[in-house]
Design goal:
Elements (H helix, E strand, L loop, with lengths): L1 H56 L8 E6 L2 E8 L3 H11 L6 E4 L2 E2 L8
Length: 117
Amino acid sequence: MKVTRFFVVAGTALVLSAASVGAYAQASDANAAAAPAASSKAANRALSKSVRRALTKNKQIDSTNIYIRARDGVIRLTGFVPENAQIQAATDTVQGVSGVTSVDNKLTVKQPSGGGN
């Protein structure tokens, strides 16, 4: 009877040990999956900032109303510029930024409002 009880206790300990190792492995996998998503988000944010800086430095472009979205190297430009030539200038500028793989330029021309009269 003592031998049977020993095997029951040993078996229970073995099952609990295996369950805790499985739970740890699942938690580690979840953390590993979350890490690339966070680093990808940070990389997209950093790329957006680099694109914004490049557009701001280009004196041929009024980047005030240009909105930038970066996703895995693809840049989408939306918003408007005051002159048609600035649309192509924006694309050319963004393509020169390190890390940019392609540009989806959705900019349109909109004249600034005159205001007052």
